[in-house]
Structures are given as C-alpha cells and as structure tokens.
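[User] I have long wanted to understand how a fold can be written as tokens. Those tokens are not coordinates but codes from a learned vocabulary of shapes. Could you go through the record with me and say what the backbone is doing? Thank you; the sequence and its tokens follow:
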Amino acid sequence: MASSSETDYTSILNELGVEQPQRPKPTGERKNRLTIRAPPPRLDKERVRNNWYRIIRKARINLYKYDPIEKDYIRLMVLQPSLDRKADLHVSLLPVPITALDQCPYEALSYHWGESESENPVYVTSREHKGGEKMRDLSEVAVVVASRLYIKDNLYEALRHFRSEKHPTLLWADGICMDQGNASELGAQIPHMAQIYSKAKRVCIWLGTADVDRRTDRAMDFIGEVVKTHDIRDLIQADQAQNWRDLIFLVTCTWFSRRWIIQEIALAIEATVHCGSKVIDWRDFVDAISLFDLNFQDIRKLFADKSREYNAITDLKPLGAKILVDELSNTFLRKANRSLFEPIKSLEVLVSTLAPFETSDPRDTIFALLNIAKETSSASAQRMPPGAQLSPPTPDYTKNLLEVYIEFLSWVIPSSNSLDIICRHWALPERKSKAIMYEVLVTLPSWIKLVPESPYGQQSEGLNGRKNGDSFVGLPGAKSYNASHNMRPAVRFTVGPARSPNSPMRSTTKPIGRPQAIKMRERGTGNSLYTVQNCPVLPKSPPPSPIASLRPPTPTSPIQKSFSQQEPRVEQATMPIPTDSSMYVKGFVLGTITWNTSRIPDGIIPQEALKKLGWTDEGQPEYYDVPDRVWRTLVADRDPDGKLPPSWYKRACLRCLVNDTPNGHIATKDILERSPPGIMPDYIKRVQAVTWNRVVFEAKEAGDAGTEKLVGIGPPFTERNDLVCILFGCSVPVIIRPWVSFQRSTSPTAARRKPKEGEKPDYYEFLGEAFVYGKMDGQAVSAMDRNQLEARTLKFRLK
C-alpha cells in the first residue's frame, strides 16, 4: 500500500472525472432598504420481486468479498453515472488513509437502514491503488470483474437519487464502505466515523422517497415558507393547517428515530436534507423546527376539529426532530469556519438525554455516542495522558449486551461519584432474536432500566403522549435532591467483560473528591468482578500481581468498609454467559410499604390517595388551606426545573381540590382540557409529570422512629411489603422487593417467592426511584449519628 504522502488523491479523482454536485444553501435574509406518529414515507418500488427470484438471486455466485483494510484507512465509494435512473448501480471502492481525506471532496450519507431484506444488487469492485498506476485501469477492471453486493431498499433508493447523470460521484455510506459482517473491522472503523463525517464536504440526509400522497413534498416546500416569513403568525391560520400536519408527517419518519444520526449531524460542517426529489439546507430545517416548537400551542389549535391522530399531540417534547435540534446546538462549540471544538457533554449526559433514539443493535446505545462525548471523542483521547483516568468504554462487538452495559456503568458510577444512573431509563432492550454478529441474547437485570418505560417511550412509539412520570434524579450533574446526604456509592458487580482465566488482573485508580477507585478482581474462573469503593490512590507502578490486587482498600469511615473485608465469596461457574448478573450496593431501609394505590391512570389522582396525604373533604362551601404534605407531594416538592416550588403552587392545588370529580378524584386531563385561566395549568402539568403511571404509597418507618407514617410516590408496580431504601450515592430513595430463590444457585429467571416473616431474602428486585415526603434532602441520614448509621447499614444484592 502506498503511503498517503506518495499518493495524490486529487489527481486520482480528477482522472476519474469526479465532480461535486451543487446543493442548496441556507435561506438568507435580505437587508431592508428605503426603496404525531404518522407512518414514514413509503418506498415506491418499481418492480415486484417474488420469493423464487429472491432465492435464486441470493444463490448466485460472484458475491462481493471485501478486501482487508488497514487500520488507519477507510473506503470511499465512487458511484458511476447513468442517464437512466432505473439502471443498475455500479460503484468502485477506493481505500483512502484518514490523513488524506482533506484531498477527497466526498459527501457522507446519513440514512435509516430500514427493516427490509438486503435484496438490491450493487455491482462493486475495489483495488488497492498503488502510486504511479493510472486510475482508469480500475474502471476497466470494474467492468470485467464487478461482484454483487446486496443492500437494503432505502440505501438503494438513496444511491439512485444521488447518482449523477454525467459524472462519477464520491460518497461514503456505511452500508457499502464498511464490511458489516466483520466485527473486527467494525470495531476499528467506528472510531474513524468522527473524522469521516467531520471531514466530509457535506453530510446528505436521506429521509426516503416521497409518499404517494406527496405530503412530504408539500412539507419540504413549506419549510422554506416558514423560514422566509418575518411574522410566523401569518402561517398560523386555518388555511395552513394541512401544511403543519404535513410537517409533522415529515418529521415523524424513521430517520429521526435513529441513534447514529446524532453523531452524523453533530459532526457535519454542512448538511442538506433530501426527501424524494426535494432538498433543503439543514440550517433551514433547524430554524423551521425551532419556530414550530416555539408556536406549537397556537398551531395545535388548528388541529382541534381534525383527526384524532393530530389532535392527540399535546407536546413536541418527545419528538425526535425537536430533541435532535435542541441537543445538537449544545453538543459542540464551533469555530468561525464551522469546524468543531471539542465536545462539551459527557457520555453519561448524552446517553441519558438521547435515550429515546433507537438502533437495531442495542450495544450501540453506548457505541453510537462515543465519538461525540467529551471523554471519548478522538480529540479528548489524544490529550489524555496514560493512567490519568479510568478507561472509558470502547466499541467492541465481540461483547454481549450485558457486558457492554456493565462496562459503561462500572465507568460511570465512579466517574460521576453517583448511583443515580440506575434510576434513569437509559438502556435499549435486548433484541428478540439472534443475528449475524449477535449470537448471544442475555437477560438484563432489574437495575438496568429500559427506555420503553421512560416518560415518553421509544421514538418508534410515535407521538402518543406521556407513558410515565419524569425522572426524579434528573440529568447528570443537575440533581434536584440529596436523599443519601452526600454518601459515596459502594458498588460491586458480579459480571464484567469476560477474559481468559490466566489473563493478568488490573487495578486502575482515579481520584474523585476523596480517594476513589475502581478495581477489577477475578473470582472463580469465568468472569471479573467490578468493584467501586473507597480506597487510597496508588502511585503509578507496574501492573500488580493477582495477590496484590486483592488487598483491601483503606476505609475512610466505619460505614463504608471494603466489600472484600465483609462479603462472602461469590462462586461463579465457568460459562460464556454468566447466569448471575447481581449488583451489590450499600444503604439502609427507610421503611416498609403498608398501603399503596393502583397505578395512577392518565393523571387521575384517586380520592383515597388524597386522604392518605392528608386532605379531607368535609363538604364545606369554602376551603382556606391545604396541608403541605398534599400539595408538595403531588409535585415532588419541586418545580419543572428541579427548584423548590413557588408558593402559589399551594393556592393552585387548593383550586384543583375544590374542582374534584363527584367521586372526589382529581382528573388532571379534564381540568386542562377546560383551559382554566391563571395558575392551575402549570401546577396540573407538574402533577402529571410526577404522578403519571406511578403509585401513591404509605410506609411504616424503620428504626426508632417506626411509629411515623411515611408517604410518597413510587414506581408503578409497588406493592405492600416492598422496602423503601436509601442507597449510598443515590440522590433519591428507591423501592426494592425482597425475593427468595427455590434453588439458590440458579439464574435470575429461576422460580422465586417472597420471603416469609423473619426469613432472609436471597436478593432484591430493583423497582425504581421514589419520592418520600420529608426525606429527600438528607434528613434520614442526618437524623442518625455515626454508630446508628453503621448499625443500620446493609448490603443489598440487586438482580
């Protein structure tokens, strides 16, 4: 392979006749002088393929086989021109070093893979270009020995759209330029994607072909009108209602649900949006969506007498297009030439805020964001001195999903010094079936919370409204509560990345506030144990021996003693897929659930819940006060921004209580639909965000204050005898459920039962976060002295 310094790629591309197509610029401003989920756009297939044809075609010989590619190289695709849009696609693959990408004016495609089978043939050839050879030889070879590569419908349509009639086009698309059946190559190529998209002359977003009713065409044209108008109110008129509905139809197409698009657009210097034959600049699209969101409540009124499909859309908050526009504006800072500074958001923040975006491989929950996180981007990695911090996750498609998730958590918890991540619904669920390079399916433990149970669910669920309440723990670095009173997390995982029984053990340290460290220790023969605990920071030294790595850390307090000093040995069988995915945490029991409501449906607060909180309807004609425990609990004692609630919340709550239903319930949706004036709507929306699909509970407090009744709001499946706990490092209380296994050595899916009175549980199921009135700011911890806290501290095995 010739070095990049010996190869003039500009000359090569000129000999090939590659020319850059013209794309639209953003809409400019002329200086004044005095003189909801709708289905995605459907693909118009021009021919129908029967099953026999598919089988015969796939069985043909001469399928394309990728040449190995060097570590610091990528492949660019030269798409050959054709006057006939229906003609077969012919491409050449050109290996190019990353350092030479500036010489290659290519466009990078951003598209949705889709669910179709790979049935569309592309005739492709590749050859390593050696210095001094004429590139026309490559074209001649392509005609003679081109092999077939089969791709999915959407990429096939995209390539036909971007193919020029006269000149070869230089493109990059992962479906062709990366060997999707080679896990090793994918792992090596994914770190290059930051440079692939940031060095591209342009990123071309392909939303798909136009729908048969041409709604997407109208929406693309309407975006131009939205951006050009100086008074958006001119477009918020009854005769424009269909245009706004078409815009919703456009932005609910499947491209906006993809997780990979985030980095593709975040890294782009320029981008254009293509749908069917229509194309607009990405910046126009961003402005149109921002204006749509800003005026949505007025626009929504235009849908009042139309179909339920659009009238049911009450909030654009879960819309992928809106999330994308909002987050990308704050993911990178850009220089004057629009090139990027380093990322400004952490990996934990990105995983938490971009959770609704989907991917066919759930391991990409983490991998798809590595290139745009401040700790894992290429710019950050280049400056990171060896041993300066705990090693962040890296893309490795040989690991199963559980290993990937635990590797992420074992890095996040000590890095953030917080256990709040286990309360967030950040993880995509396991696949339902195996696939190529996805041969192992795992069962995820209860302490890895899934995106489908998040406030609005996954993007594929569309704009169907709220499913669950908002998270109590909030976003990383912006916690609203401090229930554990700054206690540090003490955590141990029994599953880690698999390694050889004879491989050396490692100990990595990083100071976080007080001395903190993460240690990987091996027990049994099959899997490593990840331990997050207090220990002194050790000076740099050669890798410790296995014996040295097991020495216990020096405790900083009696409460936070080392697990290695207290825990019994956890034996693990030698097997490729571990059956025990336990996490050990420390904390104490705050109380035991004695009463709870059913899940609160559609924001209807039941009368019995109001009574338990302290509200009594005595049939009086007038009421003058409402107990703090009522109005504060219903809003989790915070406003939507996580700050202490304003005093007028109390008056708003009282107005809601006197406007209850004949049965004494508060029907929040009915109240909002009546469009009440004044302060009630804001209070009611906050009540919905806190209580939706959750339960109100009462609990008997543990310890010396056991006579006091605790009240609060818990996760949807809370039951009597569940435990309310404070876990060290977690900013809010949590609800856990004790279980006894019939066979103590079996997997988490084994038969189980609830423990009898006085019987010690084998493990606990993590149900989720909770709000407990009067216990959210460290009161439960500060009420005890050191000896009392140490006596009540327990180790919980969560599964």
Summary: The CA atoms of residues 67 and 591 lie 63 Å apart. DSSP finds 27 helices and 28 strands in the chain.
